[in-house]
Amino acid sequence: MIPARVVADERERASGVPDELSKLNVRVYYSRLPVADYVLNPEVAIERKSVRDLVSSVYDSRIFYQAAKLSAAYVRPFLLVEGDSKEVESLTKNLKSFYGAIANVSMAYGLRILYTANPKETAIAIAELLNHARARPLARMPSELPPKAKSIPQQQLYLVSSLPGVGRKLAERLLSKYGSPRKVMGLTAGELALTQGIGWKRAEKIKGVLDSKYARYQEKGGQSRLET
To answer: Which domain range does residue 175 map to?
Structure first.
């Protein structure tokens, strides 16, 4: 297996994080980075700060300058805060102004913020970001997780709400009107279309899924495909 790779700023050598990354089979390359402490790919970079350094950067305004540079250079910038977050209260003069500054840079520059306790946790966080760097949102949000050990009504709701374009509310409406999942699945497109909130277009999609011949689903080479 080819090790994952990350580029670290030269000044991170002594932080302990690169050593921990090596234990996780992540190959670390060093460079004098003009922006960020770790670069995972052309889109993702991480600025690592200890709690003390974060507080200091808020008071001398460095955080705003660094956030601006980071967001300008990378599509998905991360601010990783390492240490005990309980220290913030003892280090800050005004908690409201401190968190106001953090809120400002996260909202204005789109910074994603991660918190870790120590270099080992930081390395794990970086390794997992590398593993999931290509993650994408679901094309359609599931109505809920499969209710394996739940009640029959919950299982019925889950079953009907898995139909295309049917969420929990529509599933409840269909089950209340027709009584059971079997009756809902047996409806014609015309009968489905008469249900408030469905309409012809959605009804035809539902019937298309229910009536189309199954083609065996397989995974190959990391990409899904249908085999006929």
So the answer is: 152-227
